[in-house]
Design brief:
The protein is α/β, with parallel strands linked by helices. The chain contains 9 helices and 11 strands. Helix content is 34%, strand content 19%.
Length: 257
Amino acid sequence: MRWFFFNLQPKKMDKQEIYGVRAIIECIEAKQSIEKVWLLKGQSGPLFKQLEFLLREQSISHSYVPKERLDRFNAKNHQGAIAAISPIEFVSIKEMIEKALVATKTPLFLLLDHITDTRNLGAIIRTASATGVAGIILPQTGSARITSDTIKTSAGAIFSVPLAKVEHLKDAIYQLQANEIKTVGITEKAIDTIFAKKLNSPLALVMGSEEKGIARGTLAVLDETAKLPMVGAIESLNVSVACGSVLYEIVRQRNFS
C-alpha cells in the first residue's frame, strides 16, 4: 500500500492531504477519517467509479471541480482526486447517543446547522466541553472544516468532546427523538425565551449560522424553539456567544435551581 501525502496549506500545516484515486480508495478502506474529497470534473473509468461509489456509501463529503482548481493545490500530480484527512476521529451518531445514555440520564447534545467559521466552531466546542455536552453533531456538507485554527480556538477541547457527521441534520434529529431526547432550536423566530423553557430532561440543542439561522426544514421537525432576549440596540449575537449563553442557562437550571 503506497500513500502520497502533501499539505494543502503549508503555512498553517492544518492536516494531511492525499492525492490520487487509488490512494484515496485505500484510505477509505483503511477506515481513515476523510473530511472532504475534490474530484476532477468529467473523469470516468472503473477505478474512478469505485471511488464515487465508496464516497456515496460512506457519506463522505465530496465535490466536482475543474482542473484549474485542482492545479492550485500543492500536489504536482493530483491524478484528478484530492482528499483532506481530518485531524480528529468522528464517531457514529448511534455510538454517540448510546454512550451518552449509559453515562447519564440527562445527556446534552449540540447540533450545529452550517456553522462555517472555523474559529466560531472551535469556540463552541470549547464551551461545549466546559458545560458537559455529550456530543456535537455536524452536517456532512456546509460545515466548517476542522483545521489548526479550530483546534487552537477550542483550546484542545476538540479532543474531549465526541463529534459526529451526518448527511442531513434531520436524520440526527429523528434519531435523537426516537431515543426520547427533546430537540430545541434557538431562533429569533421563537415566541418563548430560553429562560422560560424547562431544560432538565435529555436534550439536543440546535444552533444555526448567524447569516441564515436554522434551516426551515430543520426547524419544522424540532420539538420546541426558543430565543435569547435582546434588549439593546444590537439585534443578534455571534453564534459562539449565543451558544455559550444557552448552554450556561442549561447548566444553571440543572445544577443551581
